[in-house]
Amino acid sequence: MVADSVPSLSVNLAPNYESGLLLTNPVMTASGTSGFGEDFSKITDVSGLGAFVTKTVTPKKRSGNPTPRTVETPSGMINSIGLPNPGIQGLLDQEAPHWESFGIPVIVSISGYSVDEFRYLASCLDGIEGVAGLEANFSCPNVDKGMEFATQADLLSEATTAIVESTSLPLIAKLSPNVTDMRPIAVAAQEAGAAALTIMNTIVGMKIDVIRRRPFIGGVTGGLSGPAIRPIGVRFVYQVYPEIDIPIVGAGGIRDSSDALEYIMAGASGIQVGTNNFVHPDTGLSIVAGLEKFLKSEEVSSVQEVVGIAHAEQY
Ligand code: RRO
């Protein structure tokens, strides 16, 4: 790389789609941690991110799980929010009109109880201005049947095919860490036409309130997130990367550019920041700056050059 030249951070998350899904940098929000973007865009400059991933939407409005819905844990937190959202019509009426002003691709996270519900959501979002792609949340740990799609390859295949047939938007399939081996699920998603994979959602855990002698969280169990789960996410990305040809988006416990680079070197082309946005909403922006600094100091001209580099035989 020529001294002082700016390294390229750009990434295409849907190289197999004619439209592609082009991001100026690999850093995104993780679904569910910055709402539908309107409030988040008031506390950080979203235009500096690669993409905004929305909270998950379902066909009908939902009010969510009983409280308390969150609790801190060592190096992380447990949530059982239970997918509260305005439903697809509410989303289109109240949230979608803000997205064009973000100046970056908006990826809408969708979830359904059945293959038909996924199909319906994909067709509702097809052609909506400001929507650049879909992320299918096949892995919510906190609702009935929330993880069925990401733990059973045949179901995931069926839902992925239904979505892909109902929209021209590129589809990212968000997978669950609550499996022993993610590789067969990842391969099934690719074969059914997913443009990319997000690895991973939260890990089922729980806390007991020892004074009350009862589960602390209203939903009893919840999804563990934060730095505590990062080694597990990096492991899954590293294991899945050699098995597939589509891009991986890494998520789970990323706080800074060094954490992001762990995922990238394990095989992720993009990364998502979730829990740390609750503490520092500018985390994504500092990661973008940190990645650029790293590439410059290592004299690497493009972030693509380090994707999966931890698999190389020689240093
Ligand atoms: O809303 C939630 O409780 C939730 C969802 Br949809 C998800 O995908 N992952 C998570 O940890 N919580």
Please provide a written account of the structure:
- Helix 5 (153-166) packs parallel to helix 6.
- The chain has one domain (11-64, 82-203, 224-311): Aldolase class I (TIM Barrel, Alpha-Beta Barrel).
- The strands form four sheets. An eight-stranded parallel β-sheet has the order 3-16-15-10-9-8-7-4.
- With 315 residues, it is an alpha/beta fold.
- The chain has helices at 40-43, 87-99, 115-125, 148-151, 153-166, 183-191, 230-240, 257-266, 276-279, 283-297; strands at 11-12, 22-23, 27-29, 52-57, 70-73, 76-79, 106-110, 131-137, 171-175, 196-199, 203-205, 208-209, 214-215, 222-225, 248-251, 270-273.
- Ligand RRO binds next to loops.
The CATH topology is TIM Barrel
Strand order, biggest sheet?
Answer: 3-16-15-10-9-8-7-4
How far do the termini sit from each other? 18 Å
Percent in strands = 15-25%
What sort of overall outline do the alpha carbons produce when their principal axes are compared?
globular
Summing up helix and strand content along with how strands pair, one would put the structural category as alpha/beta
Which spans of ≥5 residues are poorly predicted at pLDDT below 50? none
Count of individual beta strands:
16
Number of domains: 1
CATH class: Alpha Beta
**Can you give the mean pLDDT?**
96
Q: Say which molecules are bound, naming each kind only once.
A: ligand RRO
CATH H-level superfamily title: Aldolase class I
Give a quick account of the main beta sheet: strands, pairing sense, barrel closure: 8 strands, parallel
Helix content: 25-40%
